[in-house]
Design goal:
Blueprint (H helix, E strand, L loop, with lengths): L1 H7 L2 H14 L8 H11 L3 H8 L4 H6 L11 H11 L1
Helix pairs in contact: 1-4, 2-3
């Protein structure tokens, strides 16, 4: 999924992700604040670097992708197709 997000990354996508992180950082946000803050740091990186990190096969990025601020970027029909292919 994040490979597609990486390909579609632009200012609008980043703004949506930043807004989601803002929601996460509320008192009762649904995501641990440590993960939300780390995503916030990554979203401030140059876009080329962020694109690389989104698909990086490292423990940190695999963990971060479990709570992604990019939910909804890949439309549901594409998402289902990808999940079916992976299974």
């Amino acid at each position: 999924m994040h490979r597609l997000v990486s390909e579609r990354l632009d200012d609008e996508v980043l703004n949506r992700a930043r807004a989601r992180i803002g929601d996460w950082l509320t008192v009762d946000g649904p995501v641990d604040h440590r993960w939300a803050r780390r995503w916030g740091e990554l979203l401030d990186l140059p876009m080329a670097e962020l694109r690389e990190l989104l698909v990086e096969d490292s423990e940190q990025m695999r963990d971060l992708r479990q709570s992604t601020p990019f939910a909804g970027i890949v439309p549901e029909d594409e998402r289902r197709k990808i999940l079916e292919e992976v299974r």
